[in-house]
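S1.2 Input.
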Amino acid sequence: MSTQLPVLVGIDGSRDGLIALTWAASYAMLHDAPLHAVHVVDDDRHVAVGAPTNARDDGSEVLEDALDELELIGFRAASLEVQHGHPAQVLLEQSEGSKALVVGRRGMGGFAELVLGSTSQVCTALSTTVPLVVVPDTWDPAAPPRGRIVVGIDGSVEGQDALQFAFEQAATTGAEILGLHAVEIPKSYPDPNVWDDPDQEPWRDTADELLTRTLEGWTAKYPDIAVHRRSVTDHAVLALARESRDADLVVVGGLGCTAFSELRMGSVARGLLYHSHSPVAVVHHPEF
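S1.3 Output.
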C-alpha cells in the first residue's frame, strides 16, 4: 500500500471537474499516490441565489459522477468526500496534507467564473505549500502524450521550485524539458541599425547565459533527461501559451502569500491560466 501523500482534486459536477479528476488520477498513478476528490458545497452561494432548501446540493450526484469516471478509467485508489464552505478555502486547507492540488479551469460557479473559474484563481493565488495544477477543458485524456514539459525560466528563487517539479515529472514520464525565457524589448530600445552587430541581438547573450546558469544544476542531477533551451523576444504569457500547444504540461513559479487576495498571484501564472492549451502547474516558493 502506498505511503505517499494523496493527490487532492476539487470536483464540482462540471465537465471541467471531471477532466481535472482524470488528470489527477493519471498523475497519482504515475507517482504511486492515492487520490482524494473533494466536492465543496458553498452554502452561502445557495442562499445568495435563493435556492429552496430542499433543492440545495448535498453532493451525492457529484460523487456518483466522479465514481463513474474513475471506474471508466480503472482507477481504484481513490477516496471521495463532500465538504461545506468556501471551495477555495476548503481545498487550500486540505491541500496542506497533499502531494498536489488539482482543479479545473472553469466550473459551475456563475457569472464570476464565465471567463476563468474563481476557485482556480484564488487557489493559485494562495497555494503556498504544494504545487497547484489547473487543467483546461482543451486537455484531451485520450490524446497520446506529447513527451514535452515546458518550464518558464526567469532566474528567480521561486523558479527553482518550478524546475524541481518539472524535472521530477519528466523523470517519471520520460518527457523532455524545454526551458523557455522570454525577453520583452521596450519600444525605446535602440534601432537595430545602431547595434554593434546587426545580426546578433544584444540581449541574446544575457538571455542564453541566464538559461545555462539556471539549468546547469538540474541537467547535472538528471543527465538522462533531454533538455532544450530557448530565449524569445515576447511577453512571457504569450510565449508560454504558444509552446503549450505542443506540451503535456507548462510549469511556472508563483508568488506565495498569506493574505486572501487574488492580486498577489504572479502575473505570468495568472495570465497563463487564461491562455494555456495544456495543464499548468503553478509552483510556489513557500518563503514568499
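S1.4 Remarks. The two ends are 35 Å apart (CA to CA).
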